[in-house]
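Materials and Methods. Structural model of SAM-dependent methyltransferase. The 237-residue sequence of SAM-dependent methyltransferase from Polaribacter filamentus was retrieved and submitted for structure prediction as follows.
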Amino acid sequence: MKNIFFLLFIFISTSCVLSQEKNQPKEIYTFKKGDYNGIGKWYLGREIAYVMGYEGIDWLERAEREKEENTSKLIKNMDIQPTDFIADIGAGSGYHVFKMAPIASEGKVYAVDIQLEMLQAIVLNSNFEKLKNIEVIQGDSTSVNLPENKFDKVLMVDVYHEFNFPREMILSIKKSLKKNGKIYLIEYRTEDDAVPIKTIHKMSEKQAVKEMKAAGFKLEKNIDNLPWQHCMVFVLN
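The predicted structure was written out as tokens:
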């Protein structure tokens, strides 16, 4: 039954998606040549990276991921409660979604992605029907398309640096959070040259704080226990 609703969702979403680029204010962004893997668009001194396409889905599900990122520890860092409502922004294949949903057994996990192919992969996962508390949502380049004042926690794993409109996206997320809600921003550490990831796909704590502050958030803590990534927790300022 969920698959039928998902197909209807795809039809409606595809029919309604409009180009956001032309209608957005450009003064908060600058445009210049930069990294080969960047889009030539800059926000607060940081070049935005190209989005990883659905063709890279196998990398999201690689066997080495737990060892490289210690995802189990990340989930513990989030202190998920049974009644939590959680949004995974840029959920991809649902790698984290399927780890969080059993813990938030009386709540719900919303898997948000801009690529329909990623959402379809989640729906086709055998655990999707079993868990019953996962919703798939198609976002767009400026909005997560989530209900307001709904979420206890928002997770973004290695995706924020690829947002074409980071300010608009964070403001959209801000609306969806409860007053005491938290954003878990997970990004590969720029500060660590040993992390084997391209520089444009990393972020420093300093840069993340600058960008989140511009949207009204402050850093509560940076949980420094993951092998390659920051685990930065932001709350409303």
